[in-house]
Amino acid sequence: MAEVEVKYGCAGVDWARVAETLKRVGMACHEPEAHRRAFEASHTTVFVYQGGQLVGFGRAISDGVYQAAVYDVAVLPESQGKGIGKTVVQHVLARLTSCNVILYASPGKEDFYRTLGFRKMMTGMALFQNAASMEEKGFTEPGHF
Ligand SMILES: CC(C)(COP(=O)(O)OP(=O)(O)OC[C@H]1O[C@@H](n2cnc3c(N)ncnc32)[C@H](O)[C@@H]1OP(=O)(O)O)[C@@H](O)C(=O)NCCC(=O)NCCS
What are the extents of the domains in the chain? Predict the structure, then answer.
């Protein structure tokens, strides 16, 4: 297996590849420029390279003191199952050691986060921009649309 390199920050990131990766794994994707703005405005960003190629990433928004939320954790399909997703999340958490950390998993990916210590929230709530679509995909309780 080619060497894995983990980088914090956004220097040199290929935002088109970020958008393409999110699209390929079925996560919400936007124009590359929108991803650049979102990642650059985040508290912590992690990018994992293998053989010089970007294969996974993730980010957290945070006050840096006691609250944080993890978003956009994705690993290229051909690179999944090799510990890269775990590396991404562990490196994000390493910068948030004083924080409560929340996230919402893609439906079916909850056990990935359970292996990293996360537990389901009983009172988590969301006000999504695309609320009907998020309900349809199984992110929120049914019955509102
Ligand atoms: C979910 C995802 C980030 C996991 O990354 P990965 O590199 O494939 O996962 P890893 O190889 O690091 O797995 C770490 C651990 O989680 C477990 N795991 C990984 N995916 C899992 C899944 N879908 N369900 C249950 N457990 C899973 C692994 O077995 C491993 O367990 P171990 O530490 O006991 O060996 C990746 O599969 C992905 O990008 N999926 C599509 C996008 C997505 O759904 N992202 C999450 C958004 S919330």
Answer: 4-103
Overall residue count recorded for the chain in this entry: 145
Q: Is 49 in the pocket of ligand 1 (CB under 6 A)?
A: no
Are 24 and 77 contacting, i.e. CB atoms less than 8 angstroms apart? yes
Atom 48 in ligand 1: residue holding the nearest Cα: 105
Ligand 1 pocket test: pick from 109, 114, 134 the residue with the most ligand atoms within 8 Å of its Cβ: 109
Whether the CB-CB separation of 112 and 78 falls below 8 Å is answered with: no
Q: pLDDT tens for residues 1-53?
A: 789 999 999 999 999 999 999 999 999 999 999 999 999 999 999 999 999 99
Residue in the structure block whose two tokens are 């990131």? 13
Within the chain, residue ranges assigned H as helices are: 15-24, 32-40, 84-94, 110-114, 131-136
pTM: 0.96
For residue 82, report the distance from its CA to the centre of ligand 1, in Å: 9
Name the superfamily (CATH) of residues 4-103. Gcn5-related N-acetyltransferase (GNAT) (3.40.630.30)
**Pocket of ligand 1 contains residue 90 by CB under 6 Å:** no
